[in-house]
Design brief:
By secondary structure, the protein is α/β, with parallel strands linked by helices. It is built from 5 helices and 13 strands. The protein binds guanosine-5'-diphosphate and magnesium ion.
Length: 258
């Protein structure tokens, strides 16, 4: 009899049993005010929020089709008060991270670095790596820009992540493209990861060799629903759907969309 130890990092896409959908978990990180919630809502509803609860943190789920593949995308819109201090809740949950700053706010850009350091450290310790995308938001505020595109790009290169600039209040497709890319990155990472060799101990507790740990044979997919048919559900609470108040339609918990 062999005792297993050395637990490999699980692929954070749920394995895909026959006839069920792949699941992909996206986590939005960044300092308060960078536009994480606005981007989340834009992606899920094609709309720009005008009122929000800055302290709201929740996970939203949306059934989508991306690259002809159905996938349940779960989006965690975080609301850290003090940077990546209590990061455990998302580090092992995430399939990919979107680290957001606002191009018109240098401080929000500086704030990203702490997140990138934390995530890179996490990635170094465990395989497979979780993809990270650096995202400069509020591109519509270009005339008030405090962070150049080249600064964003340089920071992304330093941490080996992708980089985009978008606006939550401009076109939906640019925002969707970024979320889709996060899905694809996570999928690629899942496909790249070979079965994780796991050492085992024999009954006399001597390390005797390696055995192949069970690996996911199905790639980790994260796919987004067609926006028009997206089904919005808060994972933690069903209250979201019941908050309808004329003339404001609350589609997601805490988000009022006029
Ligand atoms: P969070 O704290 O990161 O979730 O930031 P929010 O999504 O709550 O956005 C903070 C503020 O920035 C809100 O007043 C939003 O309306 C605004 N905002 C978010 N995204 C954009 C954007 O792309 N352009 C502009 N002009 N404002 C934005
Ligand atoms: Mg928010």
């Amino acid at each position: 009899m062999s005792l297993m130890f050395g637990k490999p990092k699980p692929c954070n896409f749920a394995p895909v049993p026959e006839r069920s959908q792949a699941v992909c978990n996206l986590v939005l990180l960044g300092v308060m005010g960078s536009g994480k919630s606005a981007l989340t809502v834009k992606f899920l509803t094609k709309r720009f929020i005008s009122e929000y609860d800055p302290n709201l943190e929740d996970v939203y789920s949306s059934e989508e089709i991306v690259d002809q593949q159905p996938v349940v995308v779960k989006v965690m819109d975080t609301a850290d008060q003090d940077g990546p201090v209590n990061s455990e809740r998302y580090l092992s949950w995430a399939s990919a991270f979107l680290v957001v700053y606002s191009i018109d706010n240098r401080q929000s850009f500086e704030g990203c670095q702490q997140y990138l350091k934390t995530l890179t450290l996490h990635n170094k310790a465990l395989q497979p790596e979780t993809p990270i995308i650096l995202l400069g938001n509020k591109l519509d505020m270009d005339r008030y820009r405090q962070v150049s595109k080249s600064d964003g790009s340089a920071l992304a290169s330093r941490f080996g992540c992708l980089f985009y600039e978008v606006s939550a209040c401009l076109d939906f497709l640019s925002v969707q493209r970024v979320f889709h890319e996060a899905v694809r990155e996570a999928r690629r990472e899942g496909e790249r990861s070979p079965p994780v060799p796991t050492p085992y101990i024999s009954e006399d507790k001597a390390l005797v060799g390696l055995s192949s740990a069970p690996s996911f044979t199905t790639p980790c997919y994260k796919e987004l629903p067609a926006p028009a048919t997206a089904k919005l559900v808060t994972v933690k609470s069903s209250r979201a759907q019941s908050k309808r108040r004329a003339p404001t339609l609350t589609l997601l918990k805490g988000f009022k969309i006029f």
